[in-house]
């Protein structure tokens, strides 16, 4: 809410601040309303200038500043953070099979299940097997292959993963529907290492470094 009595406004962190020097002592009137709006907008547009400058200076040590102007905000986000959409086709390009072949019916069921998942579910799957929520925009930037290994666990059991090795253990299933149901259960209910948010929380919360084993 914008106060309507003086030249004050709410900052990004909720504090009331003057939009001009001594603004707390300047009454807001009908005659100076336009100036107030201009001053308030200017304050909000530039209140993060020092923080943005610090980020820009840090980025300039990695990327030449003139090159940043060639990218949109969305393009820069994708280069730094990866793609928000988890592509099944990209995963297929990264996969390496162990003790099973691409033509095996179980593999066909697995890929069909991922394709039928929502993107939110594919993000959960990616976190389940790798600890990450996004894939790099360039497949060449992925150092590890996505490994699928067939295991002789009980039929229709829960799949497991080792995030450190980007490895997914796939037990035998009697149908694609059961595979999809067991996979959904695992990605929604089994804890995983969250590499994307680890640096935000490791100072305050204990981190479970174990693999995703049922």
Automatic annotation (TrEMBL):
Keywords associated with the record: Cytoplasm, Phosphoprotein, Repeat, Transferase, Ubl conjugation pathway
InterPro entries membership: HECT_dom, Hect_E3_ubiquitin_ligase, HECTD3
GO molecular function: ubiquitin protein ligase activity
Keyword Cell membrane: no
SMART domains named among the record's database cross-references: HECTc
Cellular component aspect of the GO annotation: cytoplasm
Subcellular location, record wording: Cytoplasm
The HECT domain, residue ranges: 19-201
EC nos: 2.3.2.26
Pathway: Protein modification; protein ubiquitination
Location of the active site: 164
Protein name, as recorded: HECT-type E3 ubiquitin transferase
Organism expressing this protein natively: Dissostichus eleginoides (Patagonian toothfish)
